[in-house]
């Protein structure tokens, strides 16, 4: 049996005070919206690499981080890592 220290446990009282969701419903809803409705459907076929890239881009858009993603891609194209 693995014993967890106090710091690694979820503080349910704090989460309840802030009225944050404790269940998996919010995550399941996000998966339905971000993944199932966009990547799955009649006639849709994705190679795993392409689907992963599209899912990453979709999550960046939904989280409001799209500009940061684009900036990092453009910066990498201008200043590629030397290897």
Structure overview:
This protein is mainly alpha-helical and 83 residues long. The chain has one domain. Helices cover 59% and strands 0% of the residues. The protein contains 4 helices and no strands. The N and C termini lie far apart (44 Å).
List keywords for this structure.
single chain, 83 residues, mainly alpha, 4 helices, 59% helix, 0% strand
Mean pLDDT: 79
Overall helicity: 55-70%
State the assembly state of the protein chains.
single chain
What is the helix tally?
4
Largest β-sheet summary: none
Count of separate structural domains: 1
Strand content: under 5%
Summarize the helix and strand pattern as letters.
HHHH
The secondary structure category is mainly alpha
Note the overall shape. Answer: extended
Low-pLDDT windows of residues: none
Our Rg estimate from Cα atoms comes to 19 Å
**SS elements, strand count:** 0
Task: Report the end-to-end length measured between terminal Cα atoms.
Answer: 44 Å
Topology at a glance:
Elements: H1 12-17, H2 25-39, H3 48-62, H4 66-78
Short description:
By secondary structure, the chain is mainly α.
